[in-house]
Structure to design on (579 residues):
């Protein structure tokens, strides 16, 4: 049994609003095993992104701790790779120089960082675009570059916040398979946020279903489907059953009222 | 002429009747553009069909014929020659007062004197130098000041009202004071040119700072960046297009500042030449100095535009 890589220990997040205290997160407990792939799914406003911000050290939780390898990492930045939905490639940098951003910030010399990045660029479908500027690339390629940037940033834990949310369905499916290949090659611990139940199950070892108001984890579903997974597995009865369960859990929550949008 | 088949056709094809809202049986619409409106209405139909069937006169997309460039240039030169000729003839016939307006041949004569025995090159160099120095100092200092606001929100909040005040202040009104403080040499001209350009650069750069994508900062910090790294690798490059976008405005402002400084008190410069000529009723020299000044302005503007394009290209590709 692998050890726990990342644990979120009784984390709560409250915001003072004019209408009173808003509980964004309510006693979140989460343990992610080393090298595993877990997903968080839930309705909008359930605090998925807040969890990521807290794990990445960009927000201080009101209560609780974040442990990486058993060491308190609450409120410290640069411990995990974090990819937002937007690719956030810098338009004035070439693809290669965008990908090495993390290494560069960590103090790796540019030439050395480039040397490390180039083989990966070529291996993961960006050959021929090493010196291209982001605006010349398609949405899928930009997203690949953003993902490579996150993976090349030398951390064991990677947070992916709806990385494929803005892509079209075809590209999205290809990106999922590509991500699984990358995950197997790099051996990182991945926490993935998505709205898409099918995507969550297809990719993950474990799916955490969240509820909103207050944001909390209402169920954890283990996905025991064999790996490596092929697209065909999404049509198997096991997969369908898991999907059904997730959807039931999501729908079982209080019907969202209009205020939820805020 | 077609007869509309459906009520929808009727409505669509007879806007005038519909708009007027008149019963065409009582108020038959008048034919337009020689196309007679079809006034037949089937009796016993509902209100939708009261409108007169008619044909809208066909309207084509207006197309402008492009003249060849040579024709355009010829027209431009022709207009210039016509103006000069009219001016010269008007002055010769007494229709235009030579004393107040001078005339082209006298201006040309003065121009040759200005460039051969006069101070043309000294004056051009003086104005050029004060403009360029004021432009550079104002642009760089202004951009630096604008960028500095990124470092502290509190500092930005404290300083901002002063910047706005300085922005709304007509800086040229301070020119006499600046000349008193900095003397009648080149320093006062540079100071006025700087004062004009500094604020524009500051405010534009600050707008750029405020437009830096917060998610971009989030990305940098998640990668463990220091504030200096965010500043150097994100804030400055994001603001560069903003900084560059004011270069063209600033070169014009710097020239204005330098000229006003020369108007107030100076020993050299095209501005001084204009004031001196005006005070001695040497109208031809006024025109000469103004023309040379315009030429200088055009040269600087074109150069800065070119630099701007190069810089933009450098940033984007």
């Amino acid at each position: 049994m692998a050890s726990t890589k990342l644990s979120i220990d009784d984390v709560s997040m409250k915001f003072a609003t004019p209408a009173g205290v808003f509980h964004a997160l309510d006693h979140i407990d989460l343990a992610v095993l080393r090298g595993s792939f877990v997903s968080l799914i839930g309705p909008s406003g359930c605090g998925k992104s807040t969890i990521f911000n807290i794990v990445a050290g960009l927000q201080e939780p009101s209560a609780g701790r974040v442990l990486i390898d058993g060491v308190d990492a609450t409120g410290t930045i640069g411990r995990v790779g974090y990819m937002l939905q937007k690719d956030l490639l810098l338009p004035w940098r070439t693809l290669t120089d965008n990908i090495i951003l993390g290494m560069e910030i960590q103090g790796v010399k540019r030439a050395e960082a480039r040397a490390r990045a180039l083989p990966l660029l070529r291996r993961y479908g960006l050959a021929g675009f090493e010196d291209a500027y982001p605006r010349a690339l398609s949405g899928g390629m930009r997203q690949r570059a953003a993902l490579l940037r996150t993976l090349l940033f030398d951390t064991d834990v990677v947070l992916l916040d709806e990385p494929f949310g803005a892509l079209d369905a075809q590209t999205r499916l290809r990106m999922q398979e590509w991500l699984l290949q990358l995950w197997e090659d790099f051996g990182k611990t991945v926490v993935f946020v998505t709205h898409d139940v099918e995507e969550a199950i297809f990719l993950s070892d474990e799916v955490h279903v969240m509820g909103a108001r207050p944001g909390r984890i209402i169920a954890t579903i283990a996905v025991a489907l064999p790996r490596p997974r092929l697209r065909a597995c999404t049509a198997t009865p096991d997969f369908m059953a898991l999907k059904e369960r997730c959807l039931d859990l999501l729908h079982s929550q209080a019907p969202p009222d209009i205020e939820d949008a805020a | 002429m077609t007869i509309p088949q459906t009520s929808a056709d009727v409505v669509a094809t007879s806007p005038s009747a519909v708009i007027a809202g008149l019963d065409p049986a009582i108020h038959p619409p008048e034919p337009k553009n020689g196309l007679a409106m079809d006034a037949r209405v089937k009796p016993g139909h509902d209100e939708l069909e009261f409108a007169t069937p008619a044909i809208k006169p066909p309207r084509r997309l207006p197309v402008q014929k492009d003249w060849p460039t040579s024709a355009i240039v010829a027209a431009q030169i022709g207009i210039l020659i016509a103006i000069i000729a009219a001016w010269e003839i008007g002055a010769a016939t007494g229709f235009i007062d030579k004393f107040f307006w001078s005339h082209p041949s006298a201006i040309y004569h003065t121009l040759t004197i200005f460039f051969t025995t006069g101070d043309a090159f000294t004056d051009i160099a003086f104005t050029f130098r004060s403009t360029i120095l004021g432009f550079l100092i104002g642009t760089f200092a202004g951009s630096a000041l604008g960028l500095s606001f990124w470092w502290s929100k509190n500092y930005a909040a404290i300083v901002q009202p002063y910047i706005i005040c300085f922005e709304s202040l007509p800086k040229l009104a301070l020119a006499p004071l600046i000349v008193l403080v900095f003397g009648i040499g080149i320093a006062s001209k540079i100071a006025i040119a700087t004062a004009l350009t500094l604020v524009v650069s500051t405010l534009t750069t600050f707008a750029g700072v405020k437009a830096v994508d917060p998610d971009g900062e989030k990305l940098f910090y998640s990668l463990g960046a220091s504030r200096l790294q965010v500043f150097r690798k994100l804030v400055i490059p994001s603001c560069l297009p903003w900084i560059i976008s004011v270069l063209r405005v600033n070169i014009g402002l710097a020239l204005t500042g330098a000229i006003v400084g020369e108007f107030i008190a100076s020993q050299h410069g095209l501005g001084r030449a204009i004031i001196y000529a005006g005070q001695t009723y040497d109208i031809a020299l006024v025109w000469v100095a103004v023309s040379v000044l315009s030429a200088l302005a055009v040269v600087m503007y074109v150069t800065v535009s070119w630099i701007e394009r190069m810089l933009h290209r450098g940033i984007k590709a």
Remarks:
- The CA atoms of residues 67 and 265 of chain B lie 49 Å apart.
- Residues 283-316 of chain B form the longest helix (34 residues).
- The radius of gyration of chain B is 32 Å.
- Residues 1-24, 34-39 of chain B have pLDDT under 50 and may be disordered.
